[in-house]
Write a structure and sequence with these properties.
214 residues; 10 helices
Length: 214
C-alpha cells in the first residue's frame, strides 16, 4: 500500500503525458498531421510550419499544461495521501516520458521541451522561469530553437541546486528526475546537434520551407 498511490500518480501522469497535443490539435483544426512534414516532430515548433500560429500556440500551452498539472495535483492533494517530493519527482518524469513515448500514438512522441518546462514550473515556479529565460536569451541571440532547448535543459539541474536553501530545499529525488529529463531532452535533439555542427540547422524565422500543402 505504501507504493500504491505514488505508482498510480505516476501512471496517470504518464497517460496524461501520452496525449500528443500536436497531433490532436492539428486534427481538430483540420491541419495535416505534424508527423508528416517538416521535422516530423509532433511539437509546437513543427506545428508552426503548418502556417497556423493558433495551432502552434495551443499545442505549446497544452503540452506545457500536461507537464505542470500532474505535479501541481500532487502538491495540492498529495499530502492527504502521504505523497511528497518523491511522488513529485515521479510524476514530473512520467509526464515527460509520456510525451516522448506516448502509449496512444505507438510510442512515437516529440522532444518534450514544453512538457519539461511545464514540469519545472510545477516543481518550483522560479526554477521554471529561470529555465524559460535561459531559453529566450539563447533564442534571441542565436535564433536556434534547438540550441536554446538544449541549453535550458543543461542549466535546469544547476538552477534547482542553486536555489537550495535560498528559495527552496532541494530534494535528491527531484534532482535525479530533472537530470534524467534534461539528459533525455538533449538525447532527443541528437539530430539537431548534427545539423548545428554542420551548419544546416534552420534558424527561427529563416523561412517557411517544409510547409505542408493544403
Amino acid at each position: 500500500m505504501h507504493y500504491l498511490f505514488p505508482s498510480l500518480a505516476a501512471l496517470l501522469a504518464y497517460l496524461v503525458g501520452s496525449l500528443s497535443f500536436a497531433v490532436i490539435v492539428s486534427r481538430v483544426m483540420g491541419l495535416n498531421d505534424p508527423r508528416s512534414y517538416g521535422s516530423k516532430n509532433p511539437g509546437a515548433t513543427n506545428v508552426l510550419r503548418s502556417g497556423s500560429k493558433l495551432a502552434a500556440v495551443a499545442t505549446l500551452l497544452l503540452d506545457g499544461l500536461k507537464g505542470w498539472l500532474p505535479v501541481m495535483l500532487v502538491k495540492w492533494f498529495g499530502p492527504d495521501y502521504g505523497l511528497g517530493d518523491g511522488t513529485v519527482a515521479a510524476v514530473s518524469l512520467a509526464a515527460f516520458v509520456g510525451h516522448l513515448f506516448p502509449v496512444f500514438f505507438k510510442f512515437k512522441g516529440g522532444k518534450g521541451v514544453a512538457t519539461a518546462a511545464g514540469a519545472l514550473l510545477g516543481i518550483e515556479w522560479l526554477l521554471g522561469l529561470a529555465t524559460l529565460l535561459t531559453w529566450a536569451i539563447v533564442v534571441f541571440f542565436s535564433r536556434y530553437v534547438s540550441l536554446a532547448s538544449m541549453a535550458s535543459a543543461v542549466f535546469a539541474p544547476f538552477f534547482y541546486l542553486l536555489g537550495d536553501r535560498e528559495t527552496w530545499y532541494a530534494d535528491q529525488r527531484i534532482v535525479l528526475a530533472i537530470v534524467v529529463i534534461s539528459a533525455l531532452l538533449v538525447f532527443r535533439h541528437r539530430q539537431n546537434i548534427t545539423k548545428l555542427l554542420t551548419g544546416s540547422e534552420s534558424r527561427l524565422g529563416s523561412g517557411k520551407k517544409d510547409k505542408p500543402a493544403g
